Amino acid sequence: MRIGITGALALAAMMVTGMAGAQETIVEKKVFELPSFTTQSGRTLKQVRVGWESYGTLNADKSNAVLICHFFSGNSHAAGKYDAADAAPGYWDAIIGPGKAIDTNTYFVIASDTLVNLNTGDPKTTTTGPASIDPDTGKPYGLDFPIVGVRDFVEVQKALVESLGIKKLALVAGPSMGSLQTFEWAASHPEMVAKAMPVIGAAEADAILIGWLDVWAAPILADANWNNGDYYGKAPPLAGLAKALTAVTLHANHQDWANATFGRRPAKESENPGKTLTDKFQVQSVLDNAGMARAKLSDANHFLYLVKANQLFTTGGTSLADGMAKIRAPMLYITQPKDLVFTPDAVERTLKAAKDAGRDITHVTIDGVRGHLDGVISMKQAEGAIRAFLEK
Amino acid sequence: MRIGITGALALAAMMVTGMAGAQETIVEKKVFELPSFTTQSGRTLKQVRVGWESYGTLNADKSNAVLICHFFSGNSHAAGKYDAADAAPGYWDAIIGPGKAIDTNTYFVIASDTLVNLNTGDPKTTTTGPASIDPDTGKPYGLDFPIVGVRDFVEVQKALVESLGIKKLALVAGPSMGSLQTFEWAASHPEMVAKAMPVIGAAEADAILIGWLDVWAAPILADANWNNGDYYGKAPPLAGLAKALTAVTLHANHQDWANATFGRRPAKESENPGKTLTDKFQVQSVLDNAGMARAKLSDANHFLYLVKANQLFTTGGTSLADGMAKIRAPMLYITQPKDLVFTPDAVERTLKAAKDAGRDITHVTIDGVRGHLDGVISMKQAEGAIRAFLEK
């Protein structure tokens, strides 16, 4: 399949490439509920629920647990399949499984949905956010849901991990927004994180990323159906959300892929993109169709809350230097030099801050034509580095 | 002024930096009207009008004319001031004027507004597009206006140039979308172009650029007030257009500028961007304010028609190789390696196509922290290369 975006979950579908034939782990989705959770901003929420999965077996002294944190548009399906007939396994299946880099014969791997997860319409995702029913009112929170940050995601995961009796994680890892959670875990709970593996991310959202995240969100804010977040039970801002997801997909890829895959072909053989405003090139129709398919399973307010959580992010909550000073875990930092979201200069600033703070950080790069997305779909390249890091 | 975006015309205002003290040319805006103009798509329009300016004096044999083509959000104000008290001169004033690289003591420099120019609300811009009154109906064209391409922009300019009795241009030049017009001029009227100077552009819109242009346009399409282009006499899609212009400004800049200028400062000293969805960082508020200020003077349909014209662009109209084969003019190609819009690999493809076709092309790069925008505001760096190119 040359284009690589056809399914409802564009990123998931894009992952199919190069992942056939691996031994399959059958996994089940579980739900973790916290009767009460107080956010960093001081708001107490009742019945906070997130979905989670696990691969492998927790050992007797509960010392072999690994936590995987998901990316912006992802969920806790990091590895395996729900059913052998599933079109694709979880997103990091190339490095998580029996005999793989994060070997489930050795490790008990946990992956959880974040708060305000995007995929509210996906039956395999459980999250709590603006689209959830507020138990106090019986209605969706909408914008009454408090602003949450990456630290809040981490605190919910910490409660999940502790509910399993785990006191220390052998590894915390994740791509993109998952890397922000990884840095945050290492800084806010250094005693619980033995090793950390942030992938295709940075330890802080810089001004340009804050700006780009606004570009992603813009079509939602411009969609009158968004209605200041008050659209539950009415027509949701589907057109705006679809365009927002289109922007995410384009940004998460690289020109090498887009140009080689689509060139200047029209959407349909017989179609002239110059005929009317709505006639398209193939790159436009593929991205728009993928965006719309995803939008139908996603929530616009959750998108905006995720944007905010990413914009607010600095490791440790105050400054990059303070955050790095708190970290104790050795880090394996994996990036892609063609990443257009977390650019090489953001990576350099993270590395410099880590080194200035005296941190033990190993930097490895992967390559490919997908840019940012290679940190999700091309991780097999880092297999050797991950094994070495876990063994040392 | 550290931030550099305050005026109504964000890009114009951004240009102020580093341009003080030059000798000022006072210019006047003129209007060129074509009673009838037939587009490449075969539609005949009546009373097509565009604004234009000139600097210097046309010589007796009319051999000293230079044509400057403007960028996406620009207009024909390429140099000089309308009034000595103007805050800023035209966008390429650093290289156009008496004694400057394009020396108006030697050359007669013409700059014209394109068709479907964005700045319909600016009294110094004259253009014809969807917002114009169709003389046949007495109403704005709206989406009944035909799709136009860069070749159409060129043909209107050609009529303007010929109306002045000019048979050959000593130079055609322009930044960004102006470079597309420059390539197109050289390919479609090789006998009329002695030299060509495309700046911060490429000879073809590739798939990634087509995709990004859609990201720019997305907030307009998501804005219900856009109403399929039918909003004249009603509330225009101002929110969507403002967000679209914000995306253009961000993309036209580089992270080096955004990060150094804004960092992670909140919009206001006392404001916490984490308090609510609408509390902002400074980078967000400055870009949003600039976008909204520009939107009030711009037209959303014109924005969409410009996006389409850029997406459709291949030099010569068929393929990069065919286009390059038609060019005769020596070219001075000026680019910025940090350009995020026309990326280094697009520049490389243009260079390769030019060389494969045996073209005489000299490639020069400029630098700076603005990326794409350096081709508008930092052109003094190329002064020596431009002089040498014009003298050879």
UniProtKB/TrEMBL annotation, chains A, B:
Keywords: Acyltransferase, Amino-acid biosynthesis, Cytoplasm, Signal, Transferase. Its EC number is 2.3.1.-. GO terms for cellular component: cytoplasm. GO terms for biological process: homoserine metabolic process; methionine biosynthetic process. It is an enzyme of class 2 (transferase). Residues 65-344 form the AB hydrolase-1 domain. The active site is at 176 (nucleophile), 339, 372. It is found in: Cytoplasm. Coiled coil: none annotated. Residues 1-22 form the signal peptide. InterPro entries: AB_hydrolase_1, AB_hydrolase_fold, HAT_MetX-like. Gene3D superfamilies: 1.10.1740.110, alpha/beta hydrolase. Its main location: cytoplasm. One of its GO terms (molecular function) is homoserine O-acetyltransferase activity. The keyword Cytoplasm applies. Pfam families: Abhydrolase_1. Belongs to the AB hydrolase superfamily. MetX family. Homodimer. This is Probable acyltransferase.
